[in-house]
Write a structure and sequence with these properties.
The longest helix has 32 residues. Strand 1 and strand 2 form a beta hairpin. This protein is an alpha+beta fold. Helix 4 packs across helix 5. A 3-stranded antiparallel beta sheet has the order 3-5-4.
Length: 178
């Protein structure tokens, strides 16, 4: 009896698939013809119809305001910095302000802001776009429509590529100078 239970349990575990952790986006387009009655003439007219559907799979909705309030209760200075970044992002997923401005806005020390931003950059949750401009990774958090998220993600990715190219150029220049 126990062997049957173990076998059945093993079979069930084999059938289960591990859920994907990535958000998957699909787009489907259906092109067809449809007939409509013209109200003015009463004639039956044929039209080409294009149906488009965008869908995101495996995503979670987060009510940012509630999450920020909940995290604020914890009181950790680094969480306060993260809350500030999330609450002060613009529609391009950017936070504009120096680390001093952020420290003053949050009410924490500059070293806390420096360390928090450093850790978030290492975790690829944010990146420095330029002096005084940070950008949240749109794969992690974004508010808006799918199409706009894809545009911001493209900008985010392009700036990473440019950043990597600059780093390689600096490394090559340094090696040639040796």
């Amino acid at each position: 009896m126990e062997d049957k239970k173990k076998t059945k349990l093993a079979e069930n575990q084999k059938r289960r698939k591990k859920p994907s952790k990535k958000t998957v986006s699909t787009k489907s387009t259906k092109i067809a013809t449809t007939q409509y009655i013209n109200k003015e003439t009463g004639e039956l007219e044929t039209f080409n119809v294009i149906e488009e559907h965008d869908q995101d799979f495996n995503f979670e909705k987060i009510w940012l305001g509630h999450l920020l309030e909940s995290l604020e209760v914890l009181g950790n200075a680094k969480i306060k910095v993260l809350n500030y970044l999330l609450a002060n992002k613009n529609n391009e997923n950017q936070i504009i302000g120096t680390q001093r401005v952020i420290a003053k806005g949050v009410g924490v020390s500059l070293p806390v802001v420096n360390e928090t931003i450093k850790k978030l950059v290492e975790a690829k949750a944010i990146k420095k776009v330029s002096s005084g401009v940070l950008m949240l990774n749109p794969e992690i958090i974004f508010k808006g429509q799918h199409k706009k998220r894809m545009n911001i993600l493209l900008k985010y990715t392009k700036s990473e590529i440019l950043e990597n190219d600059e780093d390689e150029s600096i490394n090559n220049d340094t090696q040639q100078g040796e």
